[in-house]
Batch of 2 targets.
Target 1
Amino acid sequence: MSAQNYRLAGPASIEINEVAPRDGLQIEAHVVPTEGKVAFVNALAHCGFARIEATSFTSARAIPALADAEAVMHQVERVPGVRYTVLVPNLRGLERALSCHPDEVNLVMSSSETHNRANLRMTRDQSKAQLLAMIAEAGKAGVPVNISLSTVFGCPFEGEVSEADVMALARTFADAGAAGITLCDTTGMAYPNQVAALCETFQRALPDTGLTIHLHNTRGMGLANAIAAWQTGVTRFDAAAGGLGGCPYAPGASGNVSTEELVHMFAAMGVDTGVDLDALLNVVGGVAELVQRDVPSQLLRAGPRLRTHQPPAWMAEFFAAA
Ligand code: COA
Ligand code: ZN
């Protein structure tokens, strides 16, 4: 049996939400100028992503790197077939976001109390109340809502996070009308059977709510966790080009699972991601210059698995003589 016909059980196609313009650029020391951000989003938009998270409408004090969110949203090309989404933490941010006509909004809060306070300067109850009001407001504007729940697989301040807390929040937001929920592994604390267990619980409890999984590769388990999620039927993945990413308010945070490595892996397995790997690698090739540092992409360094090399020149003569 050929390798590609040996199917691990999972969906035949998945879609990817490219989050590098938001999760990636928010933590970079080098503030990318607006035109650089716009060019980055536009280049990504031609790679085949279902969604691009283009920026966040956060306070400029909290996330100075993305203070130009309106300008970015007004200037990006809106490529047909791509849904442009933005991260929003509060009602003030929603008002700003809606003025830019995103295709959807991604509201955020943490499933752990301490990270929510550190990141959003609100208690979970305060965030929950804001998010419920925001779901209603976005609904009036006809803009679909996704909710990203941070720290669901572990909190850098509290350790283990209760599955019951995560599912209670998910159910509250699904009941209030959120079209989708993203389970976020903010600092790469997740491990594969934990991911599979929560994804299965979620899909059993909320079968009509779109589930996305958001992984960071902080402890090297990003792709293993992606496979674990996929095997439970998950079809929506956040990932960041070049493996950029990280929450500035989570100690030890580092990059998301890298989009090119996720696409390369699933493509090798015969799973359709919709993304053109060569086009994406071209974009990733420019990321180091964009952020003024090396990017943690092993695939960029090694090349796709079938990009082969010339054998050493001495071999032709040596073996011809033999
Ligand atoms: N966009 C722009 N400005 C905002 C804002 C927003 N979404 N929310 C609040 N502000 C402004 C207020 O208008 C106020 O301005 P003023 O001082 O000129 O009156 C000021 O910020 C303080 O407002 P307050 O409501 O007290 O907010 P805060 O300072 O407690 O910050 C958040 C709360 C949620 C806005 C902030 O913590 C934040 O943006 N966090 C996001 C963190 C993040 O993105 N992490 C990574 C992704 S998970
Ligand atoms: Zn993240």
Note: The chain has a mean pLDDT of 97.
Target 2
Amino acid sequence: MKDQCIFCMIAEGTIPSVTIFEDDDFRVMMDINPASKGHCLIIPRKHFDNIYDLDHETAGKLFALATDIARALKEALGCDGMNLVQNNGEIAGQTVFHFHLHLIPRYAGDDVKVGWVPHKSDPDELKSICEAVSARLSSD
Ligand code: 5GP
Ligand code: ZN
């Protein structure tokens, strides 16, 4: 529990939320300002600022839970698609600094905006980025 963290307070139930699911590790709640019908958030009970902090065990359980929630949303709402969004850092749109995964159901003709402008790539730059990143991954 991190002091003054609104999602820690929601996770532990001090602040109420419209909760779809909860277990020992997670709470899944409706987003208070939804981008679309059914927009919800998966939050770990334990505080992690962002993805750089998240441990493998929590990350694995979280994504497994996301598959269940996504299927339940699709069945319940009949959405046409779904975006999973996870923002890290202010520049990336993070406003609550307790890790959370957005599930945003999509409907034909909706006004949700999730995206980027594709740029032409430089093959040498792709290769050097690839090498720099892969060199930092351990094999264990
Ligand atoms: P971020 O921009 O950090 O990726 O997403 C934060 C999300 O949390 C936003 O979609 C916002 O609507 C939602 N949110 C912020 N405060 C609350 C709250 O008190 N309750 C709920 N249910 N959602 C919240
Ligand atoms: Zn927190």
Note: Helices lie at 6-12, 56-77, 123-134.
